[in-house]
Every structure is written in C-alpha cells, then in structure tokens.
Amino acid sequence: MKKIIYTGASILAFTFSCTFTVQAADLGIEKCIANTQQKKTGDFVKLEKLNVDGKAVYEIEIRDENGFEWEFMCDAQNGKIFETESEVKSAKSKAFKSKAKVTEEDAIAIALKAHPGVIQEVEYEIESNGDATYEFDIIDGNGKETKVEVDAATGKIIEVSIEEWEVGEEPDERR
C-alpha cells in the first residue's frame, strides 16, 4: 500500500484536505477527477472507492453552481467515466416521483432481503436515461458497507458494490 496525501491543490477544484491509504490501483484517481471536472464543474461532496463485480471504481460526487448534486462512476484503471447520475433531495421530487412505482419502504425491504444489515444512507437518483433509483448504503454485522441500487419503477436490484473507503460525508442522507 502507498500512503498519499491529497490536498485541494492536487485535485484541482475540489476543496478538501485529507490523508488516506490507497493501493497502486488507486493512482488513477487524478485522471478520474480531471475527467469528472470536464463533464461538470462544482464543489467536491464525496469520493468513494468501490468494488463493483471485482472492478475498482471511483464514485465522485460534486455539487454544481445551482446546488444540484451529480454522481460520476469512473473506472479506476483507465480513468474513464462510464455512468453519470443526478441526485434529487427526496422521493417526492417531481423527476423521481414521475417514474417511481415502488415505495421507499418496499425498496428498503428488497435491498435488506438481499443484503441484510442497517441502512446508513439513502440517495434518490435520476439515471442518465431518466430512470429513478434508490441507492442504499447498508452496513452489515461485520461493518462492511454495501451499496444497493434499486430501480424505483420495477423494484429490481440493478447494481451492488462494496465500499472500500470514503472521503466526505453527506449528513442529510444519513438514516
């Protein structure tokens, strides 16, 4: 493992300062951040390293000048962004509500049945194709955090990832 100190200067427009330990595969972080900034400028909200089907991925969240939050999924090996989502404040948001047929309670039950634990965070997302999804961060009995994304129209689990580390926090999403 290599210890790296990231500061506001080393990751361009994102303002935060932290120290964390990363593996060699994490060194693509600069490329992912630069590619994210080409897509959308704004303030850093959160950065997470995830394992999605055995693949290292960064999830980078930013808040644009209008206060909207955007989430970018980036391949940690090649720095390419492969998914972009916007977040809305609640399931009552017009963009979310117009697509949702599954209640939050039902989506939680679906996620917890597949991945038992305690819901730590909930996000309401609009996919790039306009679909609405619930994203739940679930902590299991061993302290492992799993992100489970449930389609708000069908109730199907569409993505599962394991969080390896996180920088930043969104207290309003805590449960």
What can you tell me about this protein's structure?
The chain is mainly β. It folds into two domains: 87 residues, Nuclear Transport Factor 2, Chain: A (Roll), CATH 3.10.450; 77 residues, Nuclear Transport Factor 2, Chain: A, CATH 3.10.450. It contains three helices and ten strands; from the N terminus they run E-E-H-E-E-E-E-H-H-E-E-E-E. Strands 3-4-5-6-7-8-9-10 form an eight-stranded antiparallel beta barrel. A hairpin with a 5-residue loop joins strand 4 and strand 5. The longest helix has 11 residues. The radius of gyration is 16 Å and the shape is globular. The chain starts with a strand and ends in an 8-residue tail after the last strand. 26% of the residues are buried. The N terminus is likely disordered.
Total helical segments: 3
Structural class: mainly beta
Task: Count the E strands.
Answer: 10
Question: Between the first and last Cα atoms, what is the distance in angstroms?
Answer: 33 Å
Order of helices and strands: EEHEEEEHHEEEE
How many discrete domains? 2
Level of helix content?
10-25%
Assembly state here?
single chain
Give the overall silhouette: globular
Compute the average pLDDT. Answer: 87
Provide the CATH top-level class of the largest domain. Answer: Alpha Beta
* Radius of gyration from CA coordinates: 16 Å
Q: Approximately what portion of the residues adopt beta-strand conformation?
A: over 45%
Any guess at the CATH architecture of the largest domain?
Answer: Roll
Report the uncertain regions: 1-20
Major sheet strand order:
3-4-5-6-7-8-9-10
| CATH domain fold name of the largest domain | Nuclear Transport Factor 2, Chain: A
Largest sheet: 8 strands, antiparallel, barrel
